[in-house]
Amino acid sequence: MAARPSGLSTALLGAVLVSILACTGSDDRGAQASDAPAGAPAAALPDTSAGSLWAYLLAADYRANWPKWPGKGSFYRGTEPHGALLTTYLSPQAFEALSRGAAALPAGAIVVKDNFLPDSTHAGVTTMYKVAGYNAGHQDWFFAKHAPTGAVEAEGRVEGCITCHMGQAANDYIFTGELGPEAD
Q1: Using one digit for the tens of pLDDT, what is the confidence trace for 133-143?
Q2: How far is CA 19 from each of CA 26, 31, 33, 41, 152, rounded to the nearest angstrom?
Q3: How far, in Å, CA of 178 to CA of 171, rounded?
Q4: Residue 138 and residue 154 in contact, taking contact as beta carbons nearer than 8 Å
Q5: Are 130 and 164 in contact (CB under 8 A)?
Q6: Residue 46 half-sphere exposure, CB side, CA atoms within 13 Å?
Q7: Cα separation of 115 and 113, whole Å?
Q8: Is 90 helix (H, G, I), strand (E, B) or coil?
Q9: Could you say which DSSP state residue 29 is in?
Q10: What's phi and psi for 111, nearest 5 deg?
Q11: The whole model's pTM is what?
Q12: Rg of the chain's alpha carbons, rounded to an integer?
């Protein structure tokens, strides 16, 4: 039978773990593992490259693990340039902010839109990823478009994405649903 740690050794172990976590460094883009949303991979948030974002989404298995936009479900009606049918997923951090009625999604939030043709053929993946300080003039959104295979079709400060989404500036550039004033 193994000995149970005393209260003192448990407290010491906790202090050591807190110290280790506090000393973990950030990557060269400033994201830390502790910045990852709940339910996300243990790895740090992705940098601002479509390849890094795609790898993060695959590691998170967003389709299986992230909630869909509330009230939308799968294959809801879409518009160009995204596709005739859409399914929108929210990173846990984005979902939590939306659920509490945030007026804007926080840094680290990710909105993933699977785009489909009218016959339900998967046509691509478009993603909005909020990165603090990335593009302050446009609410810090990093945009990416991937083919179903993951091949990068567009990334970064994509003019077409920004021009269109600016029409929703009062809603944090989001078309899918209304954000609300944050509850006090």
Answers
A1: 999 999 999 99
A2: 15, 19, 15, 22, 39
A3: 7
A4: no
A5: no
A6: 25
A7: 6
A8: strand
A9: T
A10: -120, 120
A11: 0.76
A12: 19
